[in-house]
Sequence to fold (160 residues):
Amino acid sequence: MHVDPLEKKWMYVVALITVVMIASMTYAAVVMNLHPPSNVETIDPKTLHLSGEFAEDNLGVTTNPDGSVTVRMVAARYAFYPQLIEVPANTPVKFRITTPDVLHGVHVPFTNMSTMIVPGYVSEVNTQFSRTGEALFLCNEYCGLGHDYMWSRLRVLPAD
Ligand SMILES: [Cu+2]
Fold:
């Protein structure tokens, strides 16, 4: 089979790009331990606000016996509840977020805190914030007409 030399060159370029991409993904997964959040835990979106972990009284920041922090939140059109989260810096933080209505997302700019929030599932993200100060907690999945106004605040306080 005849392959044009120019075409052959581009085949090598494409093969090289593919190898570089697969190598960088493998490096990120194995060496840097970067994985997409993958927590398969289901919840009934129709009743989550009535009782259990995501009832209104249980939302917010809880300090665990080992000093780490768990944050429980509900994302609903068009806000995150609670509206202000205060967490200590340099402390492991576990976010547990769910939604009673449609697909949402959450993203805190300049950090690795980012996940999708899918109805029927509990999204869980483990992270840690090193910089103190205030950041925005933004919805990054289009969820309806009020999506642009869907955000709350995250305040990172000095650890002591
Ligand atoms: Cu949204």
Remarks:
- The CA atoms of residues 106 and 115 lie 6 Å apart.
- The pocket of copper (II) ion is lined by residues 104, 139, 141-143, 147, 150 (CB under 6 Å).
- The chain has two domains: 1-35, 56-157.
